[in-house]
Design goal:
heterotetramer; A alpha/beta (374); B mainly alpha (292); C mainly alpha (325); D alpha/beta (248); A: 374 residues; alpha/beta; Rossmann fold; five-stranded parallel sheet; 14 helices; disordered N terminus; C: 325 residues; mainly alpha; 15 helices; 75% helix; disordered C terminus
Chain lengths: 374, 292, 325, 248
């Protein structure tokens, strides 16, 4: 049964492209709770593949892509990564959810297959895996960029943190609490909430009575929107500061004017005042009929990085690919489709300039650009 | 003190929506002795009917809402009963439970595939606005949720107790065989029950989606909490579902504010276990006679 | 053991299990192993649900208990062969405790209690990170090494799982065909009558529940070295529903029903992958259609079909007994 | 002094506003066949359920051979040697006839452990086969009980009650819905048990013909109370009984 289907799909693809093809496997959250992120990531990759193939492919070979749905289940993702390896994938794209990546990345590592992930939990690049590469920096890189803002701009003495109680939120939360401790700022209220939580009345009410100078908000997009609406309803006046998920276009669409005034540190944003990124955003919405978020950009640049790095090596060599990427910087002037100059360190951790943004009148406005972390 | 009042008030407002979904549970339980595991999705779906009306058919909001209501009655009421419940009733409760779980998956996937996996903004029925009473914020939305919910429940109770159709529905639910002998069209009455459930779910959908946002997965937690509310309040009583909904809403908020955020979800569940063990008919329910 | 037609089929099945992974890639081997692991969990639930008629939505919670206990022990250097019985016993005892509500409430209400239990277990695993690693979970659990046979390689671990699966099936078969099994069925079909015939229904209910739970614990105990990473989300309510689906789809109350069901539930997404985003829809519709037209599941359907084809009475009875055991 | 096999003393049971059983006392002697009759709703079944542990009586006591058995569970009572049948069909429909009968005896032999690891039929197949032979349903041995006719299921139900060799069997409307041929068969079987093994019976029955010809003594209940007691002939001519039936 498997073989028949694999054969059928191979046949279909064979008709569409020349015989030689480089296999790319997308292993992402196409259904289940991670579907919004996973499908964006996939769409970004597919857009990049379309462009790459239109311009001659990689080293003259057209990309052949297979999509695998993890159903947002780490165990299934592990199986699918091994399947992608069995099928001879050159590079594996994904997964986006850290809980899945942490399970499946060792399969790719053991097989020596480079893996380009959307996951942001700190521990992914802290396990000495030489084959995993990020498309966005981990929370331990992003969150510290905010310390200065709390200390210098807001002159905060005591802060509160509200976070989503899963591996994503806990990663950000732990880094934030450690950073605040280093900066001598007291964390006076620490409020976790469930992924998918809808009722933030109690959370906001606790923040109101806590009397913090600022609140660090580390929630997923939809929860951010619900949180902002409730904060507005209850008249919470404390400055709200977050990471990329607090001020995304999605959040602004959902929360309406409740999003105004929210401040965030953003690694990738379709609203960045960078022409290449804005152009990408237009291409993306023209193709898919909906807006991209940072996951779409992550998939797109991740796929282009595969092309650039492979062509630098001049061969489809997975070991060389991984070696090359460590300590590599892809300059946006030479590699325009990276959208921003992007570097990877020896752990596969990513560095790239980033932005401080504020929502003003329903628009994300970049207030400052933060240099890439060293 | 302001905080407590605030939290209780918010809890009541949310709880009133839990109650609307929970009543549907109790009605279907009475009529078909089954549990609808897709109840959360029944609340999720009508919002998308409305969005389709607005975004694809160019309807004004009021018309789109009527359109959504009509579709809900047709699909969640009549079709659900005819296609799923009727053929499965004779197979016993478990089959129906599994089937409703499958239906829940189907509804989520349909929305995700043909609309979007992402949350959508949804127009509020009630204008924004709030009063600040010395620190306690009372929003127009919360108050109107409570009022609408009470009006619906009083209306429903009157309908069930005072009208002929309502009394026939109750008779059919309590003892189908006897009702049949008394000339009640039991099948039609059970169908009415499913329609009423669809209407209530639609109403809950219209009220809660502006807060929860329209998303394929937004029914998951709501369905769970609604049936906890139904059991805690009393599975065979409309006012039991009301009490259960409000209680869970308030308790949830008080727990999150004063006791624990990590174990917030545990409190309704512990309450559920305690009620099932010590008062299985629910706080306001009547004991169901157990035949030997 | 008499050489009957049924035994022949079982031998063929065993031979297929042994031959299946040969020449296959790691993915197939992984999927086959995970199928056997879930089969164990589903067979356990089948004892509780299919034989004794107690609806449980807690099987993934018992898997979690088994998996975490095994993980914590093996991470601390204790061999799997010691950790596994502790995990299974803990699940058994916990099953006894959770089974007590089953004595007071029946049917749907038991489903609710077990559902609540599953979510409570999830919350504890997620929140008590000092012990369980919280949302990050636990990783790096070793696969058992038996000196001459190291299960570190995927294929070896597969055969190790086959071995455990066969032992487990034999034990389960012994239970099902023993007077206990008959009492379980009596409980399912007519509890009051069973009690009037001297069956201690309280004890039998608890045992059915606890044995099913222990099987969940065993499955969890295999899950840990298989995946070598566990986190709370892998044991959430959704997975209990999934195991329930395996039992129902395969055929509740048939000995090998859950094995078929687990195969279908695990393989179907793969088989339907060419339909891209639609497979879950097809899946859901299939389940509904199956339940409406064939409430006894696939094995039940197979029985009906084979009964129609094989009209000879002798053959039919043999098959029936074999399938139902 | 010798105790009666079963002695019922002042048993009462109330449901809400209805006094279902009101201060009922009687004895059952070893070896007799006692009929329990009364109009619909007179409390016969409730009384049975009080005697058999399904209900807790509100007051009163029940003793078996002089030892108190009030409040014991149905399974404990069965293990003490009390068998019963049910008014509604009460077999295990998806199990075979022979399995139904074996289940009826297995709890009486061996321990929990031997029932798990011992012989799968607990060594009862022979006894069960003999019993279904006795009830003339041997040809149905391997059929699922649910596929049997109503009358056959009634016979199976009765066979199950006898599997554990009880000293006392309570039969709840054994003749209800059974055709005449089967009825003759059933009566003959019951009488054979009574004469061969000395098994004692208490029978609830609406079929007067059946009761009068089977029982040696009859107790009449009306509105929860005993209104008459005597031989079939005495009951037939008792004015109170006739009034109670006509009044109902």
């Amino acid at each position: 049964m498997f073989k028949q289907i694999a054969g059928a799909s191979a046949l279909m693809l064979a008709m569409a492209s020349p015989v030689h093809a480089v296999d790319i496997a997308i292993v992402a959250e196409l259904s289940g709770g991670g579907a919004p992120a996973g499908t964006q990531y996939r769409d970004g990759i597919m857009l990049a593949i379309e462009e790459i193939n239109a311009s001659g492919g990689i080293l003259g070979e057209k990309i052949k892509v297979t999509q695998h749905d993890t159903q947002t289940d780490p165990q299934i993702s592990k199986g699918l990564v091994t399947k992608a390896i069995d099928d001879g994938a050159y590079v594996i794209m994904g997964t986006v959810y850290s809980s899945s990546t942490i399970v499946n990345m060792f399969e790719a590592m053991n097989a020596g297959v480079p893996q380009i992930v959307g996951a942001e939990a700190p521990n992914i690049t802290q396990k000495g895996n030489p084959y995993v590469f990020r498309t966005a920096y981990g929370a331990h890189r992003g969150v510290p960029s905010l310390t200065g803002y709390f200390r210098d701009n807001l002159k905060a003495k005591k802060v509160a943190v509200t976070w989503v109680n899963n591996e994503f939120g806990k990663g950000g939360h732990d880094v934030f609490v450690a950073e605040m401790k280093k900066a001598g700022i007291n964390v006076i209220a620490d409020i976790p909430s469930e992924a998918g939580a809808a009722d933030f009345a109690a959370d906001v009410s606790r923040l109101k009575s806590a009397g913090a100078d600022a609140v660090f908000v580390y929630l997923h997009e939809e929860e951010s929107a619900r949180f902002l609406k409730e904060a507005k309803k209850q008249g919470l006046k404390t400055p709200l500061v977050g990471e990329v998920t607090l001020t995304g276009q999605k959040v602004i669409d959902l929360a309406g004017d409740a999003a105004n005034g929210a401040v965030a540190h953003v690694g990738l944003t379709a609203q960045a005042n960078v022409k290449s990124i804005q152009d990408f955003g237009k291409k993306f919405s023209a193709k898919y009929g909906h807006q991209t978020d940072h996951n779409g950009i992550k998939g797109y640049i991740g796929m282009w990085a595969v092309k650039y790095v492979t062509e630098m090596n001049g061969a489809f060599d997975q070991k060389k690919f991984a070696d090359k990427m460590h300590g590599l910087c892809l300059d946006v002037n030479k590699h325009p489709n990276m959208l921003l100059t992007t570097c990877w360190d020896k752990d596969g951790e990513l560095a790239r300039e980033s932005f401080m943004v504020e929502v003003q009148n329903g628009k994300q406005v970049v207030t400052t650009t933060v240099a890439a972390a060293k | 003190m302001e905080q407590l009042i605030q939290v209780v008030l918010s809890g009541l407002a949310t709880g009133s929506i839990y109650a609307l979904a929970a009543i549907g549970f109790t009605l279907i339980w009475q009529a078909a002795q089954t549990v609808n595991f897709a109840q959360g999705e029944f609340v999720m779906l009508p919002a998308f009917f409305v969005l389709i009306g607005i975004n694809f058919l160019g309807m004004p909001l009021w018309l789109a809402m009527l359109f959504g209501l009509a579709l809900s009655v047709l699909i969640l009421g009549v079709a659900f009963k005819r296609i799923l419940v009727d053929p499965l009733l004779s197979h016993g409760g478990l089959s129906l439970i599994i089937a409703t779980m499958a239906v829940a998956i189907l509804m989520k996937e349909l929305v995700k595939e043909f609309y979007s996996a992402e949350a959508q903004p949804y127009p509020a029925l009630v204008p924004q606005g709030a009063w600040d009473l010395s620190g306690v914020i009372i929003s127009l939305q919360d108050i109107s949720h409570l009022i609408i919910c009470f009006v619906v429940i009083v209306g429903l109770t009157l309908f069930l107790d005072k009208t002929k159709v309502g009394r026939c529905m109750q008779a059919a639910a309590q003892n189908a065989a006897v009702a049949e002998i008394l000339g009640v069209n039991v099948k039609r009455m059970i169908l009415y029950t499913f329609v009423v459930n669809a209407v209530l779910a639609t109403l809950a959908s219209f009220l809660i989606t502006p807060v929860y946002l329209a998303k394929f997965s937004s029914g998951e937690y709501l369905g769970l909490i609604a049936f906890i509310a139904a059991i805690v309040g009393g599975f065979n009583q409309v006012r039991g579902a009301l009490a259960g909904g409000l209680l869970i809403g308030v308790l949830d908020n008080i727990t999150a504010t004063y006791i624990t955020a990590e174990y917030r979800q545990a409190i309704p569940l512990l309450l559920l276990i305690a009620v099932i063990l010590f008062k299985p008919e629910g706080i306001l329910g009547k004991p169901e006679g157990r035949a030997v | 053991m008499k050489f009957t037609k049924r035994n022949l089929w079982l031998l063929i099945g065993l031979a297929l299990l042994i031959l299946a992974p040969i020449g296959q890639g790691r993915y197939i081997v992984y999927t086959l192993t995970s199928w056997l692991v879930f089969s164990i969990a589903a067979m356990g639930l089948n004892l509780t649900l299919g034989y004794a008629g107690q609806i449980s939505l807690a099987q993934s919670a018992f898997m979690a208990v088994g998996a975490y206990i095994t993980a914590l022990l093996t991470l601390n250097g204790i061999h799997w062969i010691v950790a596994m019985p502790i995990a299974v016993l803990s699940s058994f005892v916990l099953g006894l405790l959770i089974g007590f509500p089953a004595l007071r409430v029946k049917g749907h209400f038991l489903a609710f209690v077990t559902l609540a239990f599953t979510t409570l277990v999830f919350l504890v695993l997620r929140n008590e990170d000092w012990l369980t690693g919280g949302p990050y979970g636990l990783s790096g659990m070793p696969r058992p090494d038996f000196g001459l046979f190291n299960t570190g390689k995927n294929i070896n671990f597969y055969y190790f799982t086959v071995f455990i699966f066969v032992i487990f099936s034999l034990l389960m078969y012994q239970i099902v065909r023993s007077p206990w099994g008959r009492a379980f069925k009596g409980l399912r079909e007519n509890e009051i009558r069973a009690e009037s015939l001297g069956v201690n229904t309280r004890r039998i209910t608890l045992l059915a529940f606890a044995i099913g739970s222990a099987a969940g614990g065993l499955a969890g105990s295999l899950m840990t070295p298989l995946v070598q990473f566990i986190e709370p989300g892998s044991f959430a309510l959704l997975h209990s529903l999934r195991i329930l689906l395996m039992v129902i789809v395969g055929g509740a109350g048939f000995f090998f029903g859950p094995v078929v069901g687990a195969g279908v539930v695990i393989m179907l997404p793969e088989v339907l992958r060419f339909t891209e985003g639609y497979y879950l829809m097809i899946y859901a519709v299939t389940v509904v259609v199956l339940i409406i037209f064939c409430p006894k599941g696939l094995v039940g359907l197979g029985e009906i079909i084979s009964r129609k084809i094989l009209k000879k009475k002798e053959v039919r009875k043999d098959f029936e007994q074999g399938a139902k055991l | 002094m010798t105790h009666p096999l079963l002695s019922v003393r002042s048993v009462s049971k109330r449901f809400g506003n209805i006094q279902a059983v009101n201060d009922v006392s009687f004895d059952v002697q070893q070896g007799e066949i006692l009929g329990l009759i009364g109009p619909n709703g007179s409390g016969k079944s409730t009384l049975f359920n009080c005697l058999l542990g399904q209900y807790q009586p509100d007051s009163g006591s029940v003793a078996l051979k002089g030892s108190n058995i009030t409040g014991k569970s149905p399974s404990e009572l069965n293990l003490l040697g009390i068998g019963r049948t049910f008014q509604q069909l009460s077999v295990f429909p998806e199990m075979t006839v022979i399995d139904n009968v074996i289940l009826a005896g297995q709890e009486h032999s061996g321990s929990m452990i031997s029932r798990l690891f011992g012989s799968p039929d607990a060594g009862l197949t022979k006894a069960a086969e003999k019993l279904i032979g006795f009830f003339k349903i041997s040809h149905l041995r391997d059929e699922p009980a649910g596929s049997l006719s109503y009358g056959q299921q009634k016979l199976l139900d009765a066979a199950m009650a006898f599997m554990a060799e009880p000293s006392l069997v309570l039969l709840d409307e054994p003749a209800g819905g059974v055709n005449l041929t089967m009825l003759g068969n059933l009566k003959e079987r019951l009488q054979a048990f009574n004469s061969e093994f000395g098994t004692t019976f208490v029978v609830i029955e609406h079929n007067m013909e059946f009761v009068m010809s089977l029982c040696s003594r009859i107790i009449v209940l009306a509105e929860g109370s005993v209104i008459a007691e005597g031989t079939p002939e005495e009951i037939r001519s008792n004015q109170t009984v006739i009034d109670a039936y006509l009044g109902a």
